[in-house]
Amino acid sequence: MKYQSLRGTHDILPEETPVWQYVETKIHDKFQSFGFEEIRTPIIEQSELFTRSIGGATDIVSKEMYTFTDKGGRSITLRPEATASVVRAVIEHSLISKDKVTKTYYIGPMFRYERPQAGRFRQFYQAGIEMFGASSAFADAEVILAGILLFGSFGIKSLEVDINSVGCQVCRPKYNKELSSFLKDHLSELCVDCGARFTTNPLRILDCKNEKCRKVLASAPSLNEMICDDCRAHLEQTEDLLKLSHVEVRRNDKLVRGLDYYTGTIFEIVSRELGAQNAVCGGGRYDSLVKELGGSDIPAVGMAIGLERLIEVMRMQKLLPEKEQGISVYIAALGQDAQKTAFAKMVELLKEGICADMDFSGKSLKSQLKTADNLGARYVLMIGEDELKKGSFPLRDMKTGQQKGIKLEELLREIEPTC
After folding, report:
1. CA pair distance 333, 176, nearest whole angstrom
2. Looking at residue 379, what is its pLDDT?
3. Shared domain check, 244 and 102
4. Of all helices (H) and strands (E), which one includes residue 68?
5. Which of 36, 128, 287, 413 could disulfide-link to 103, CB 3.0 to 4.6 Å?
C-alpha cells in the first residue's frame, strides 16, 4: 500500500526548508530584539482550555477542533491556536504578575479541520507574541510595530494597519443589543451560519465573508460609535502612537476577530498589494483571558502570523531568498583505497567547519561529477588509484571550470569555504 499525507496537511521538503529556516530565523531575531522570550507549549491540551477561551459558539470550537478522548478518559484537543496555551503556561509556572510586564513569543504547528485551500491547511504553522501586564496603548503599539518591522525586514511592501475596538464588558453588551435588534429584521437574508450566530454571539456575524451577509451589514449599527470613553481613548492613543511611528493606519469599524477572548483594541496588518485576502497577521487585546483561565486580573495583548500565508506573500512579491551556495568540496573517489582516503579527508574538512561530501556507492567519475554539480559544490577533489600513487590530486573549480593538481595537505589552503 502506498501512503500519502492526509488531506489538508503538507510535507515541507528539503528544497523548501531553507525558506522556512530563513523566515524563522528572522522571526527569532526580530521578536528577541523587542525583548520577547521564546516559549514552547505542548500541541495537546485539555479541550476545555479552548472552549472556555476561544468561545463555544465560534467556528473553531464548534466545527474545526481536532478533539479526542485519550486512554485516561480525558477530552484532549490538538491546539487550534497558541494564545490559550501560552496563557495556561504563564499562569501554571507563575511567569506573570500585576507588578511586571512579561513578553513571550512562539513558533509552532496548529490544527484546524478547515476546508483546504491556497494558504490554508489543517496542520499549519503560526508565530506570535503575547505581552502580559501592560494595559496602556504603548503595549498595543509595540506589538503592532514588532509585526510591521518584521514584515518590513522581509521587504513586504504597502503595509498598513486596519484597527478597531470590539469594546469591553461595559460597552459591548449595549452594542450586542443594538446589533441583535437590527439583525432580527434581516434574519432571512443571512447565511445559515450567521443565523446560528444570531442566538449565540451576534458580534461574530460582523466577521462573515458571505456576500449576502456583507450586504446586510453595510447598514448595521457601527460598533465604533457605541464603544465607551475608555475603549475609544485607548483606540485613539494606539492610532496616534502608530502614526507617530510613521505607520499607515485605517479605522475599520467592521473589523472583528474570530476568537471570543478579544476585548478593546484589535487589528490586522495588511498589504494593499494582495487584493481581497490581504491580511498578513492579526491580533489585539484580551484583558479578561488570564482571569478567565484561573489567573489574576492581568491585562494582555498579542498577535499571530500564519507562516504559510507569510511565505505565500513573499512568493507573490518575489521576496524569497535565493538558493544558497552548496557544499564547499565534493570528493570523487574511484576504488576502495581511494574511498578510504577520501573519507579521511572529508572528516578532516568537516572538523575544520568546511562543508564536504563524497560518494559512498562506487559510481563512475562522470556520475560523481554530476552529483557534485547538483549539490552546488564549489570544488571537486578527485582521488583514484593513479592519483594515490603519484601523490597529486586534480582539484576542479566548478565555478570557473579550471583544474589543477595539488597535494592533499595543500587542500585547506586552496579552497574558499562556502558555509
Report:
1. 75
2. 94
3. yes
4. strand 66-69
5. 36
Using an 8 Å Cβ cutoff, are 208 and 254 in contact? Answer: no
With respect to residue 260, please indicate whether it lies within any of the assigned structural domains: yes
Q: Can you give the pLDDT at residue 276? A: 61
Give the pLDDT of residue 20: 96
Is the same domain home to 110 and 250?
A: yes
- Pairing verdict, β 356-358 and 279-285: unpaired
**Domain encompassing residue 115:** 17-171+227-316
Per-residue pLDDT at 418: 64
> Given 284, 316, 348, which residue is the final one in a domain?
316
Q: Which helix (H) or strand (E) holds 139?
A: helix 137-154
Q: Residue 261: what pLDDT?
A: 87
Among 316, 349, 370, give the residue marking a domain's end: 316
Report the 10 Å Cβ neighbour count for 176. Answer: 16
Within a domain: 57: yes
Q: Name the pairing type of β-strands 123-132 and 102-111.
A: antiparallel
Q: Could you tell me if 343 and 386 lie in one domain?
A: yes
Count: domains in the chain = 2
Q: Please report the pLDDT score of residue 207 as a whole number.
A: 74
Q: How far apart are CA 405 and CA 412, in angstroms?
A: 14
Q: What is the pLDDT of residue 272?
A: 73
Number of Cα atoms under 13 Å in the Cβ half of residue 25: 7
Residues of the chain scoring pLDDT < 50 = none
User: Mean pLDDT, the chain, as a whole number?
Assistant: 90
* 34 and 123, same domain (yes or no): yes
pLDDT per residue over 75-99, tens digit each? 999 999 999 999 999 999 999 998 8
Give domain status of residue 195, yes or no: no
Q: For residues 141 and 29, state if they share a domain.
A: yes
| pTM of the predicted model as reported, rounded to 2 decimal places | 0.87
Question: Residue 355's domain is classified under what CATH number?
Answer: 3.40.50.800
Residues 392 and 364: their CA atoms lie apart, in Å, by 20
Q: Under DSSP, is residue 154 helix (H, G, I), strand (E, B) or coil?
A: helix
Residue 59: C-alpha distances to residues 162, 245, 283 (Å): 23, 36, 17
Residue 98's domain is classified under what CATH number? 3.30.930.10
**253 neighbors 156 (Cβ within 8 angstroms):** no
In a domain, 239, yes or no: yes
Same domain, yes or no: 87 and 141: yes
Contacts of 303 (CB under 8 A, 6+ apart): 128, 129, 143, 144, 146, 147, 267, 269, 281, 282, 283, 284
The 3-state DSSP class for residue 85 equals helix
